[in-house]
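F.,

This is the one I mentioned.
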């Protein structure tokens, strides 16, 4: 493609202004059917979670903004109802370059983006929100900057313009804190490493895919920090617009996810982000165990064995509850699956405790110090607990029915 043709085809300001189209979900306003689209140059993944009121406007506006650039819009829907998917399906009649991927029993922006990229056809892959806060006109500017600067990644930054970022109060503080943490931990010098609006070349995604964590919401950090080298980046200023629907995903759990992800990347993947979260929950369970023991002693309990048993049970339940809402929240268990998962978690934790004891005794038999033996036992028990929890309680597939369910899960847990 010549430079002159490139400017005509991909000029960010070519023939349109950045007007904000209403995102009220008015299906009747969808534009007339498009012709069969050519092979896309740009694939934009839009992740949704109960955003039926906004997604029609987002798809319509984005399609208009990218009308001069062959593209596809891939909606990865993790919604708890069918309304968002139905809205997307209604748009597909007018915009055949819109694809829909529905996921069941799994959530999380990071893993959703990875799933969308796997289905994409474009040489350039992108990410934007489905709630209307991102301006689709910025996608054209990012696409142009990616080529003009010969970059691997182009980021829409909320912290480059002189005006407001679109974040206020607690969300703004969390975002600024997370940005500083990324720079301090990984040395990534991007003005907005937590941005949810960016483009990346396919060859970069293919190179880093085996090392992507997929945990949490900060897929840009995951993408930038997973390469053998730092990617060449370029940035375009932007600001968040008012939300069309849905709720903010930025909370303390997102920051915890980010901290775990940073540790994973800082250790070169030796410690996975999910295992770090699991270990942190385990430490809080130890505190809960000691608190129950202390309370029992203060209340004059006579049986240490009974008190220790109750404390252990409380710690197991505590760990399960926290892991369900934090470590494995994209696979959160509810209803009957919750109680099955709790039972399997307690059985796995008991097994891990026995292994920890055996490893500690073995280390003592080799003349290791008490502290070394205890640390080795705790490490072995923690790893086993994590593996069993991942495969017995929070499995990705739906739980099997029938009498063979337990045996099937145990078989899964022992497979490499």
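My design for it:
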């Amino acid at each position: 493609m010549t430079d002159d043709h490139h400017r005509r085809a991909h000029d960010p300001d070519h023939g349109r202004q950045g007007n904000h189209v209403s995102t009220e979900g008015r299906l009747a306003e969808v534009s007339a059917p498009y012709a069969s689209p050519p092979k896309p140059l740009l694939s934009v993944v839009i992740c949704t979670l109960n955003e039926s009121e906004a997604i029609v406007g987002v798809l319509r506006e984005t399609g208009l903004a990218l009308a001069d650039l062959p593209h596809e819009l891939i909606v990865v829907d993790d919604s708890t109802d069918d309304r968002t998917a139905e809205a997307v399906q209604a748009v597909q009649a007018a915009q055949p370059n819109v694809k829909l991927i529905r996921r069941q029993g799994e959530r999380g922006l990071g893993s959703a983006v990875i799933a969308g990229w796997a289905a994409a056809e474009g040489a350039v892959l992108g990410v934007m929100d489905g709630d209307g806060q991102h301006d689709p006109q910025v996608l054209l500017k990012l696409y142009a900057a990616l080529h003009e600067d010969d970059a691997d990644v182009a980021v829409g930054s909320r912290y480059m313009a002189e005006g407001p970022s679109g974040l206020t109060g607690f969300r703004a503080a969390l975002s600024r804190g997370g940005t500083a943490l990324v720079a301090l931990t990984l040395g990534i010098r991007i003005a907005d490493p937590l941005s949810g609006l960016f483009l990346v070349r396919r060859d970069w995604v293919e190179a880093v895919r085996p090392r992507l964590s997929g945990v949490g919401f900060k897929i840009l950090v995951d993408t930038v920090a997973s390469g053998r080298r730092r990617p060449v980046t370029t940035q375009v200023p932007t600001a968040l617009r008012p939300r069309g629907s849905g709720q903010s995903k930025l909370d303390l759990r997102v920051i915890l996810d980010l901290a775990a992800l940073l540790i994973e990347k800082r250790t070169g993947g030796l410690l996975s982000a999910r295992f770090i979260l699991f270990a942190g929950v385990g430490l809080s369970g130890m505190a809960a165990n000691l608190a129950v023991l202390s309370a029992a002693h203060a209340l004059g309990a006579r049986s240490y064995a009974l008190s220790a048993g109750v404390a252990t049970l409380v710690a197991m339940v505590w760990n399960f509850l926290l892991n369900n809402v934090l470590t494995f929240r994209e696979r959160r268990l509810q209803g009957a699956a919750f109680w099955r998962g709790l039972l399997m978690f307690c059985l796995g934790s008991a097994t891990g405790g026995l292994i920890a004891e055996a490893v500690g005794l073995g280390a003592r038999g080799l003349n290791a110090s008490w502290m070394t033996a205890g640390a080795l036992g705790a490490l072995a028990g923690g790893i086993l607990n994590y593996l069993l929890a991942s495969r017995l309680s929070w499995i990705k597939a739906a739980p099997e029915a029938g009498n063979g369910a337990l045996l099937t899960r145990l078989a899964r847990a022992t497979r490499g």
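The domain at 3-249 is CATH 3.90.550.10 (Spore Coat Polysaccharide Biosynthesis Protein SpsA; Chain A).

Talk soon.
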